[in-house]
Structure formats: C-alpha cells, structure tokens
Design brief:
Largest sheet: 2 strands, antiparallel
Number of helices: 5
Shape: globular
Structural class: mainly alpha
Radius of gyration: 10 Å
Number of strands: 2
Strand content: 5-15%
Strand order of the largest sheet: 1-2
Order of helices and strands: EHHHHHE
Helix content: 55-70%
C-alpha cells in the first residue's frame, strides 16, 4: 500500500527515529511502513493520522 508518511514526516523535519518515538514503535517499523513493506493495523494507523492531523485515507493510498 502506498502512503505519504515519508512526505509528512519530512515536512515536520523529523527523522524516522523521532517519528518512531512519537508513535511508540521502532524505527524499523517506520521504515517498513514508508517503503510499503508493512501495512499498519488500525490502532497504529489512527495514531499516525492523529499525530499528523489528517484522515487515514489521506495518508494511506489504497489501490494507487
């Protein structure tokens, strides 16, 4: 699944490690999401959307 996480993270000036700390996940998890190797479950997807003030569907682009 494609996503805009890397773009959103870069706009905030956060490293993968900083984002991981804010989400309470590992840096490797953030990297895997950004590269499309891992699709987060709903609790993490909601946490990400709340952190960036976006809707889940604005971050995770299903079928594109």
């Amino acid at each position: 699944m494609k996503n805009a996480l890397k773009i959103l993270r870069s706009q905030k000036g956060w490293s993968q490690g900083e984002l991981a700390d804010r989400l309470e996940v590992s840096r490797q998890t953030v990297n895997a999401i950004e590269t499309g190797k891992y699709d987060p479950g709903l609790p993490l997807a909601f946490k990400i959307s709340n952190l960036f003030g976006c809707r889940i569907e604005d971050i995770f682009l299903y079928g594109q």
